[in-house]
Amino acid sequence: MNYASYASEKKSQREATNMRLMESGVKLEDPSACYIDESVFIAPGTVILPNTTISGATVIGENCVIGPNTVITDCRIRNGCTIMCSYLMGANIGNEVSVGPFSYLRPGTVLSDRVKIGDFVEIKNATIGEGTKASHLTYIGDCDVGRFCNFGCGTVVVNYNGKEKFRSRIGDNAFIGCNTNLVSPVEVGNRGYTAAGSTVTNDVPEGALAIARAQQKNIVGWVDRKGYLNK
Q1: What is the pTM of this model?
Q2: Alpha-carbon distance 52 to 224, whole Å?
Q3: How far apart are CA 3 and CA 190, in angstroms?
Q4: How many Å apart are CA 130 and CA 41, to the nearest integer?
Q5: Where are the domains of the chain?
Q6: Cα–Cα distance between 115 and 88 in angstroms, integer?
Q7: SS3 readout for the chain
Q8: 31 and 48 in contact (C-beta within 8 Å)?
Q9: Catalytic residue among 136, 147, 169, 191
Q10: 190: Cα separation from own chain's centroid
Q11: According to CATH, what is the number of the domain 3-226?
Q12: Four-point Cα dihedral 117, 118, 122, 123, nearest 10
């Protein structure tokens, strides 16, 4: 089969799949810009926005909004979810979850109901409890996270030491401050807090605040002595 014949056949398959989905109650904003495998199931009431590719054994529930500019492979997405401008592989997603823009969900990701995963957040082989939020610039790898937690901007679960991967656990209602490094394996108890800018290497007890910062030192007159000029 030459390329022209192959492209024509793939286009016909895509058009047939898109037509079947639209007839079942799925709304494709621009069918010519939606690339959906025959193997995919999408429930009625869901909207697929342009430049979206959905493949493999993906199942999407009712009343979701998927896209634009999204790639989904082998995922289970339940009802009422919004997935915007993101890349998802092998993820299991609950009801009313918000993902994106620019999120990356890798295999083994499990998001419970009403989780929010925001921009430039990557999750790998992690379970995230109901109502937890990681709104921006966060990496959560090999971690079990409880319900109603909050991850501040710039948080990293440091799961890899160059040779082995380690798993951490975060309890319910925990608050992980901005620019926190959780060096696995470590456990943050229920209602545990970490102060912004901390590198946490020991467990945080329930209801405790972990502060792990170097002491600030101000050297008065340093700029003038060095002869630096403001520009």
Answers
A1: 0.92
A2: 56
A3: 58
A4: 25
A5: 3-226
A6: 15
A7: CCHHHHHHHHHHHHHHHHHHHHHCCCEECCHHHEEECCCCEECCCCEECCCEEEECCCEECCCCEECCCEEEECCEECCCCEECCCEEECCEECCCCEECCCCEECCCCEECCCCEEEEEEEEECCEECCCCEEEEEEEEECEEECCCCEECCCCEEECECCCCECCEEECCCCEECCCCEEECCCEECCCCEECCCCEECCCECCCCEECCCCCCCCCCCHHHHHCCCCC
A8: no
A9: 136
A10: 22
A11: 2.160.10.10
A12: 0
- Give the CA count within 13 Å in the CB-facing half-sphere of 168: 27
> What rounded mean pLDDT belongs to the chain?
95
Task: Pull the structure tokens for residue 139.
Answer: 């990496």
Q: Is 139 a catalytic residue?
A: no
Q: Examine the pLDDT at 224 and tell me if it is beyond 90.
A: no
Across the range 57-70, mean pLDDT stands at 98
Question: CA 6 to CA 43: how far, in whole Å?
Answer: 29
Given a cut of 90, whether residue 8 has pLDDT beyond it is no
